[in-house]
Amino acid sequence: MADPEFYDDEDLPDPSLKNIIEQDTLQWIFVGGKGGVGKTTTSCCLGTQLAKHRKKVLIVSTDPAHNLSDAFCQKIGREPTPIQGFTNLSAMEIDATEDLDKMQRSMEDATGAGHDEDGNSGIQSLMTELTNSIPGIDEAMSFSELMKQVQNLDYDVVVFDTAPTGHTLRLLSFPTILEKAFGKLMDLKDRFGGLIGQASAIFGGGSPDQVQAALLGRLEETRAIINKVNTAFQDPALTTFVCVCIPEFLSIYETERLVQELSKFGIDSHNIVVNQVLFPEKDAEELGEWFDSNKDGLQKEAREICSKMMARKRMQDKYIGQCFDLYGDDFHVVLMPLLDHEVRGVEKLKDFSELLINPIDLEE
């Protein structure tokens, strides 16, 4: 690697995720970062390693663009699906929009709410109004449904393969959104109840008291769940966040933003996985010396290929150096190599996951 002093210091944290595997108290592990940096692969690899040490492990995809099925090469749905080749590893892909629709239908059934001529129920219309008044409340309610479902599944540890950074940070802000929402709703409860009554009468639903109780009750349940979850998320013994990036400017910048936001929300984060690294065990200077001494003997096409590879290697080494400058003293920074093939299927995931625990020796 470039500037070996980044790596030789014996006081630096171990460059692996062994600390996560060995922390038996962890219940929630989030894996997040910019889009396209390998979050799903990292989540799956971490899950396969945890399965060696825990009784029951679950990987949950909260990214609307689900990739767990592609990574494991098997169909994974909304219910926990056993992963082939394991007895204690399952995965599921969550659709937050469908969860919210399901919740609305259950509220409609409980109140007997009717539908207007366009097929919209009173509950649905009120939820739309509430969402417009309090942005993020619909996502918060969907997230509470997810957490309620996951908590009832009784797994030792859950690995969340999250959506890109912005969506993840929004998820972490749900408790704040809900506190604001409830402050506003409770202050205006009487007036809001009157509006509910008028709307339920217009849409032919149940009694105003039923509709009001259903909506406010569900919001109260949502707040209770998310507050409980938030307390667990802020406990480093129970929850940690693994940041994933690649050695490029935008990804490193996004990781810095993510680390700062996690700190602001009180969520533990002390692991960074850097994916797609060219020859982690070599530095650009060493490769450059080889190239300079051999390029005259290479064909033109080979020289161009090697030249582009060297340019990419120098760029990566620069950003990896910056990453160690920023995080090396406090974070476990794991360099994962760029391979000649895709990491798909259980066997390839198992092989690749070993590098999270037993990283390439950078001093060879």
Spatial separation of the terminal alpha carbons: 10 Å
**Could you give the count of β-strands?**
8
Main sheet properties:
8 strands, mixed
Order of helices and strands: HHEHEHEEHHHEHHHHEHEHHEH
Fraction in beta strands: 5-15%
Query: So how many helices?
Result: 15
Helix content: 40-55%
Low-confidence stretches: none
Q: What do these coordinates show?
A:
The protein has 15 helices and 8 strands. It is of the alpha/beta class and 364 residues long. Strands 3-4-2-5-1-6-7-8 form an 8-stranded mixed sheet, with helices on both faces. The N and C termini lie close together (10 Å).
Please name the defining characteristics of this protein.
8 strands, 8-stranded mixed beta sheet, 364 residues, alpha/beta, 15 helices
Topology:
Layout: H1 5-8, H2 18-22, E1 28-33, H3 39-50, E2 57-61, H4 68-72, E3 81-82, E4 89-93, H5 96-111, H6 122-133, H7 137-151, E5 157-161, H8 165-172, H9 174-187, H10 189-202, H11 208-233, E6 239-245, H12 249-264, E7 271-277, H13 284-294, H14 300-327, E8 332-337, H15 346-357
Parallel strand pairs: 1-5, 1-6, 2-4, 2-5, 6-7, 7-8
Antiparallel strand pairs: 3-4
Helix pairs in contact: 3-15, 5-7, 6-10, 7-11, 9-11, 10-11, 13-14
